[in-house]
Design goal:
The protein is of the alpha/beta class. The chain has 20 helices and eleven strands. The chain has helices at residues 9-20, 47-59, 62-71, 85-88, 95-118, 134-143, 160-167, 187-202, 219-225, 251-257, 259-278, 285-299, 317-329, 361-366, 386-405, 409-417, 423-432, 451-472, 480-497, 509-518, and strands at residues 30-33, 36-39, 123-127, 151-155, 175-180, 212-216, 232-234, 304-309, 347-350, 373-378, 441-446. Helix 11 (259-278) runs parallel beside helix 18. The longest helix is centred in the N-terminal third of the chain and has 24 residues, at 95-118.
Length: 521
């Protein structure tokens, strides 16, 4: 792998091919993957770009690194450990970790089955943040439209307004509190856990820890906090937080939606794993999405990537993907310590359609550059209002077509001339109605939203992000930027908690000012 990516022959060929590839939507380009249809027709495409993309993957060691991902090698090179989330969803995990994974998977299943049999825990409060929160929260929101086995609430923000709002809807005597934290030192989750324990005590629960379980990679820390050994579910340090949905972190999903739903979710993800491993490069959905994303960001200069699910149940898919992509790819240093040399992670943002059309699509259509968009939709709804669904899909397709084709000045002028008698006024108004077009997008079509298709969709994005990291030569599995902020926050917390808190040794006047002021409150 070259230390100077931009000057490497494969990169230069890829960049030239990306700039020269047409974006006209003329040739249908749909990849079938694990039951999903990934339509890349409206991304730049050409035979030279296909060849250049394959050469770039080869140069960057894609096949070797992909094999290392599935084999549990230490591909997280800055932390010297594996990133083995694929093993968590395998029906038969790799031998080295099979006993651990299957054992914890069974413990979760048994806990849920026992609770169901006893009619226990009508309410569940889940406390986690980041990777310990967005995955379960997103899945429960996406799949809960047919009813939940239990009332479940999520609290992540350390702002106590959040958890107090959730607690107000729960019955302490019937509530299970789940504290999910990889290290079990996460400030927000442990602070909220203390609030929950106080709430249980104030309700007369003699042993509040009998209403609490922990999900963590640090079981001793959970025991030190007060959670009983048998009420701790484990995952491992080779599971990244944003990839931990596939571990015991899915306990709230199982309690809310059932063990069978979890099995289907894991099965859908494994189906995408199989596709990612076996499909040739040209027909490999995560790989082709990654190549398009790298071309859009690093060659064509798009700074952002929008995601627009045309299904209200997938509202939380956007922040889930935002964390996945920006925490994984928000870096610019390669394995040998040199800069990547090209722009890496795009800013990921978005909203469900059709709400997004009335929020930011004006910018998408007529900003000087706009942004690539991932449109996500389901062919079949899970309701009986067929016309509503047809309107929804029509809007999805229309927005995508409009972004591609645009509206040239001549077409806009023809419109305004029909309503304006003054030629000068018609010409002026026409300029305001021009749409540049040529905006790239991908359409991901699910047959319908099920646990299996959702699992496949999530794994699709995981493997896309992994491939982008390989192409840029960066480590997608560490998060030193997040850790730096946490360290500084702990310093400030200690200063604010101290009775004689000063302003510490902070370099900037603003931080010194606010610490001094807030410590006197």
């Amino acid at each position: 792998m070259p230390s100077d990516l931009p000057s490497s022959p494969a990169w230069q060929q890829f960049a030239a091919a990306a700039r020269g590839a047409p974006l006209d939507g003329a040739s249908l380009r749909i990849i079938e993957a694990a039951g999903l249809q990934v339509d890349l027709t409206t991304q730049r495409h050409s035979a030279p770009l296909d060849l250049a993309g394959a050469a770039l993957l080869a140069q960057q060691g894609f096949e070797r690194t992909r094999a290392g991902l599935f084999a549990g090698e230490s591909i997280n090179w800055t932390e010297h450990r594996a990133a083995w989330h694929t093993a968590l969803r395998a029906a038969q995990p790799p031998a080295a970790v099979a006993a651990q994974i299957l054992g914890e998977r069974q413990r979760v299943r048994q806990f849920v089955a026992d609770a169901d049999a006893r009619g226990a825990y009508r309410h569940v409060l889940h406390l986690g943040i980041g990777g310990s929160d967005w995955g379960p929260r997103m899945v429960v929101r996406a799949l809960g439209d047919k009813g939940l086995h239990r009332r479940i609430r999520f609290a992540a923000n350390v702002d106590a307004h959040d958890i107090l709002l959730q607690l107000g809807e729960l019955d302490p005597a019937q509530t299970l509190v789940i504290v999910s934290s990889k290290t079990f030192t996460t400030t927000e989750s442990l602070a909220n856990a203390q609030v929950a324990l106080d709430w249980l005590r104030q309700a007369g629960i003699a042993d509040p820890f009998s209403h609490m379980v922990a999900v963590t990679a640090a079981p001793q820390a959970a025991r030190d906090f007060g959670v009983a050994h048998e009420r701790i579910f484990r995952f491992w340090d080779w599971v990244g937080g944003r990839y931990s949905l596939w571990s015991a972190i899915h306990l709230p999903i199982a309690l809310a939606l059932g063990n069978d739903t979890v099995d289907e979710l894991l099965g859908g993800a494994q189906s995408m794993d199989d596709h990612f491993l076996a499909a040739p490069i040209a027909a490999n959905a995560p790989v082709q999405m990654a190549l398009a994303a790298v071309a859009n960001r690093s060659v064509l200069g798009y700074a952002t990537q929008a995601i627009a699910p045309y299904d209200s149940r997938m509202a939380y898919l956007v922040p889930w993907a935002q964390q996945l992509e920006m925490e994984s790819l928000g870096k610019s240093t390669t394995a040998d310590g040199t800069p990547a040399g090209v722009p890496t992670s795009a800013v990921v943002w978005g909203m469900t359609g059709t709400d997004s059309q009335h929020t930011f699509f004006q910018w998408m259509h007529q900003d000087a550059q706009g942004a690539p968009v991932d449109f996500i939709a389901c062919r079949q709804p899970d309701h009986d209002y067929g016309r509503n669904h047809r309107i929804l899909l029509a809007n999805c397709l229309a927005q995508r077509a409009a972004l591609l084709t645009g509206k040239p000045y001549e077409e806009a002028l023809s419109e305004t001339q029909r309503t304006e008698s003054d030629p000068a006024q018609a010409a002026l108004l026409a300029r305001h109605r021009v749409h540049p077009g040529g905006r790239p997008s991908t359409l991901i079509m699910l047959p319908r939203l099920t646990a299996h298709t959702l699992g496949a969709l999530l794994a699709l994005y995981e493997h896309k992000v992994f491939t982008q990291g390989v192409l840029w030569g960066i480590n997608t599995f560490d998060q030193w930027g997040v850790e730096f902020g946490k360290v500084l926050a702990k310093r400030i917390i200690a200063e604010l908690d101290a009775a004689d808190a000063g302003a510490g040794a902070w370099k900037d006047a603003s931080t010194r000012h606010w610490i001094g002021l807030l410590s006197r409150q």
